[in-house]
Amino acid sequence: MATIVGAALSDVVAGIREAILSGEFVPNQRLIEADLSERFAAGRAAVRAALLELANEGLIERVQNRGARVRAVSLAEAVEITEVRMVIEGLCAAKAAERITGGDAAELRRIGEEMGAAVASGDVLGYSRLNELLHRRIREISGQRTAAEVLERLRAQNVRHQFRLAMQPGRPQVSLPEHLEIIEAVCGGDPEAAERAARAHLRSVIEALARTDPAAP
Predict the structure, then answer these.
(1) 171-197, pLDDT tens digit by residue?
(2) DSSP tag of 190
(3) Which of 78, 170, 181, 212 has its CB surrounded by the most CB atoms within 10 Å?
(4) Are residues 196 and 146 in the same domain?
(5) CA-closest candidate to residue 93, choices 171, 201, 172
(6) What is the rounded distance in angstroms from the CA atom of residue 204 to the CA atom of residue 79?
(7) What is the pTM of this model?
């Protein structure tokens, strides 16, 4: 019985998380326990536990006497999140450069080529997916599981700002050479260069985020 309850809880957590990441559940949207229970065919206890877990991840927030809602991340907080990512992704890039294998290097270079093709064809969504894949593979190659878990949580919190940034005109053309520099440094087994390249890329992301602010000059 415990296994069934645990599986139901993990399914509910994964389902709500995916709905938030895909934009189906939008910032400040109320999450009604009864609706979620029906949608995921789960008991109210499992739904409550899932909402608590997602609140701990920073994806939702509990409002006194009003239940749960999708947490809205401000631009200022999005910048702070990216500043933290800059440090941790720099670490992962350095570790990946130390651990890179021939097969890993071939895969990263192939991703880089596909990113270039996506930019050339104007495939913004395809480029965004490849962008996410590249960052994930570098984290995986780094072997830094703790860092990877932290980064995944930060990415989830920041997903809507990341989407807005991906849609910013000309952004892929700016970020492509930054990503290619990270790939070459990691594949070349140069930890210091890999960390510098990763940090430079995230610094560029912070500057671009600031330009998404309607109040910015």
Answers:
(1) 999 999 999 999 999 999 999 999 999
(2) -
(3) 78
(4) yes
(5) 201
(6) 11
(7) 0.75
